[in-house]
Amino acid sequence: MRTTQVMSIGGPAVKAAGTKALDGTPADVRHFLEVGQYEARAQDEAAEAKRKEQEKKQEQEQEEQKQEERKPAPQPEGEGSGKRAADGGAEGARPASASASGGGPVSAVGGRELAATGVGSATPWAVGGSAVALTAGAGLVVAARRRPARQD
Questions:
Q1: Selected residue with higher pLDDT from 82 and 36
Q2: How far apart are CA 57 and CA 79, in angstroms?
Q3: What span, in angstroms and rounded, lies between the C-alpha atoms of 14 and 46?
């Protein structure tokens, strides 16, 4: 029973080793439970690490291709050099949010991508806290106005 539990949570190598042990003798099952499951798990972890490394390498290659696509085409030295001095070097300038492919943001410096901005994880807490404080303040103002004046 313990062998099937180990097999159910294990990877492909653990399942194969468990099946082989179950097909064998009781000594094979004992060996699997004491040693074999750990060896098979190490094989599964090595295979998973290799797969993740390959995925990371593919992602890096795709990112490099995207960066190559974003690079502007080099201009020949003879073209446009007279205009740059006249207009202060602004020829070909474009906003930082525009990209060569019309896709995501590109920085004007070095062709690197700008960081994405958005709502942080603390924003809902800040808004909720402000709302509670505002409500409590309004309640105190109302309570102060309704209190009857003392007559001495």
A1: 36
A2: 39
A3: 13
Q: Is residue 93 included in any domain, yes or no?
A: no
CB 15 within 8 A of CB 4: no
First to last CA, the chain: 87
Tell me whether residue 63 is in a domain: yes
Which SS3 state, helix, strand or coil, does residue 133 take? helix
Q: Is residue 14 part of a domain?
A: yes
Q: Residue 94's pLDDT is what?
A: 53
Stated pTM of the model: 0.40
In a domain, 26, yes or no: yes
- Residue ranges making up the domain that contains 62: 2-70
Q: Domain total for the chain?
A: 1
Residue 134 has pLDDT above 90, yes or no: yes
The Cα–Cα gap between 83 and 89 comes to 8
